[in-house]
Amino acid sequence: MAILLTKRSKVIVQGITGGGGSFHTKRMMEYGTNIVAGTSPGKGGQTVENVPVRNTAVECVEEFGADFSVIFLPAQFAGEAALEAIYAGIKTVVVVPEHIPIADMMKVRKAARERGAVVIGSNTAGLITPGEANAGIIPDIAFAPGRIGTVSRSGSLTYYVADMLTRAGYGETTCVGLGGDPVLGSTFDEILRLFDKDDSTKAIVMVGEIGGVYEERAVPTIEKLSKPVIFMIGGVFAPPGKRMGHAGAIVEGNLGTANTKIAALEKAGGYHARTFMDIPEILQRLSI
Amino acid sequence: MAILLTKRSKVIVQGITGGGGSFHTKRMMEYGTNIVAGTSPGKGGQTVENVPVRNTAVECVEEFGADFSVIFLPAQFAGEAALEAIYAGIKTVVVVPEHIPIADMMKVRKAARERGAVVIGSNTAGLITPGEANAGIIPDIAFAPGRIGTVSRSGSLTYYVADMLTRAGYGETTCVGLGGDPVLGSTFDEILRLFDKDDSTKAIVMVGEIGGVYEERAVPTIEKLSKPVIFMIGGVFAPPGKRMGHAGAIVEGNLGTANTKIAALEKAGGYHARTFMDIPEILQRLSI
Amino acid sequence: MRLYEYEAKKLFGKYGIPLPIGGLAKSAKEAEKISGEIGMPVVLKSQVLTGGRGKAGGIKIEDRAEAIPGLAEELFKLKIKGFPVQTLLVEKALEIKKELYLGITINRAEYKITIIASDSGGVDIETVAAEHPEKIHRVELEIDDPFYSFQAIRLAGEIGLPSEKVRDFAKIALGLFEFFKSYDAKLAEINPLVLTGSGDLIAADARVSLDDDALFRHADLKDMGIEKRHEEGELTPRETQAREWGIPYLDLDGDIGMFPGGAGFGIMGNDFIRYFGGQPANFMDSGGGPTPERLSRMLVLLDENPQVKAIFGARFGGISRCDDFAKGVVKFLREHGLSKPMVMRMTGNMWQEGVRIFEEARKESPELFEKIEFHGIEKPIEEIAKRAVELAREAG
Amino acid sequence: MRLYEYEAKKLFGKYGIPLPIGGLAKSAKEAEKISGEIGMPVVLKSQVLTGGRGKAGGIKIEDRAEAIPGLAEELFKLKIKGFPVQTLLVEKALEIKKELYLGITINRAEYKITIIASDSGGVDIETVAAEHPEKIHRVELEIDDPFYSFQAIRLAGEIGLPSEKVRDFAKIALGLFEFFKSYDAKLAEINPLVLTGSGDLIAADARVSLDDDALFRHADLKDMGIEKRHEEGELTPRETQAREWGIPYLDLDGDIGMFPGGAGFGIMGNDFIRYFGGQPANFMDSGGGPTPERLSRMLVLLDENPQVKAIFGARFGGISRCDDFAKGVVKFLREHGLSKPMVMRMTGNMWQEGVRIFEEARKESPELFEKIEFHGIEKPIEEIAKRAVELAREAG
Question: pTM of the prediction?
Answer without folding.
Answer: 0.92
